[in-house]
Amino acid sequence: SYLTVCSDAAHELRTPLAVVNVQADEVMRATSPGERADAASNLKAGLNRANRLVGQLLELARMEAGADVHFADADVADIVRECLAMYAAEARQRSIELVYRGPDHLPVKEVGHAFESIVGNLVANAIRYGREDGQVVVTVEPTPQDGWTLAVCDDGPGVPPGDRARMFERFRRGSQLGISGSGLGLAIVASAARQIGGRLDTANGLGGCGLCVRLTWPEGRAGIDARVINRA
Length: 232
What we know:
Layout: H1 2-29, H2 33-64, E1 71-75, H3 76-86, H4 88-93, E2 97-101, E3 107-112, H5 113-129, E4 135-142, E5 148-154, H6 185-196, E6 199-204, E7 211-217
Parallel strand pairs: 2-4
Antiparallel strand pairs: 1-3, 4-5, 5-7, 6-7
């Protein structure tokens, strides 16, 4: 419920805010330009993490409170490519190759903002938990009955099949050591999928490794214009 999300949010915000407070003290105690620059860089990173957490909490609370979904015509292929471009720098930091496989254009009717949240969170999650020097492949495929599927797959350590049902719970984090995250990305994906009536499935990722999350858009609802599809 909305109140549960708010209660969990207050608890989860304590740690990043405490870290930011410590980092601010380090900036004030710095005695040399180099120390001050390092401390300021750490403070900025801490603020970015806290800001990302707040944004995700607000998004999840809005969705779980039953906020209205606004649908509009859009090009799914463009949305996916724009998302990959947005996360390109983060992928480069881990030497991860981002790959798009699908039509050059896939204009559909009644796609909501929730779809952008799904793509963004799945790509971010795959980059964060995939392996360094690995690959994240995003595939878009139209289906025969005016539907389509989105799949985001990586070749990282993956998630054991027995744990996959729970990975969409709020604040459920991966087990990889040294990887930070709010544990909210996949919860937002699940909530957004419920809003748009899509179905989520999980499977092994690239080459049988890693994780693949697939969203199936309801057939007969998307209104794809097949005449403009040009598969790359």
